[in-house]
Amino acid sequence: MRLLATVPKRLAEQDEPLELNPIRESWLRDRQSAIEQGIAGPEAARLAALRVFSSEPGAYGTGLLPLIDAGNWESKRDLVDVFCRWGGFAFDSDGSADEQRALFRARLSEIEVVHQNQDNREHDILDSDDYFQFQGGLHAAVKQLGGKTPATYHGDSSRPDQPRVRTLDEEIVRVIHSRVLNPRWIEAMRRHGYKGAFEMAATVDYLFGYGATTNLIKGIHYQEVARVLLLDPEQKRFFQRHNPAALEEATERLLEAAERGLWESPDRDTVAALESNLLELQGQLE
Length: 286
Hints:
The protein is mostly helical. The protein folds into two domains: 1-110, no CATH class; 164-285. The chain contains 14 helices and six strands. A hairpin with a 5-residue loop joins strand 2 and strand 3. The N and C termini lie far apart (49 Å).
């Protein structure tokens, strides 16, 4: 963190033409603005150079996972408020960190591009909650605070000799079709019984997380996930035998997507089938 925080500070100190050094241009502007607000020169210079933000030392995450799991939110504004509250600690080049939530929100409002890199293929963006929490949360915050949808990319450097960059939209579609709806993956999960059912339900959770934060999950994606993973008769038998609670949770998540309008124009028969399954499951689990 010290090294990362040192980079913008050293760039700001370079005596270069501003058109060649946007960090210095931004630093000079922010320093002057802070001075005009009554902040002393040295402190104004320090604040203007802060560019590295994270959660409070000793903590981890963005706070979005428990919030979304509990369904305790009404709009993206709620998600953004939690994201900024958790991530609003600025790290300086000496390793110190202090809460600078207003500065964090100001920095986010200026962002035009969101990028997250993945350096391995042992997992993907829909089988870990970190991706939607950080990348999705950042996307939502930048859009909410800046008023414009950022260009959001997913970097793939799993093969260092052939790195690829895709839009997040492209990566989501790729993962849904190559894994989530892939019969080979589904069959492999079935062989793992309880844990396989858990992984399927987790994928639905993370799909929902990206939908909540980015709105990039399309209606056809929710529809096909419902049809293939949750409503298929063989899948239902698998879940009911090995982990009915996982099926209940995943079904509730898709119904929540429909209720919140994340699943646009959901097929009525599909929603009715999900509701029927949920009532049946709840009766069995009781």
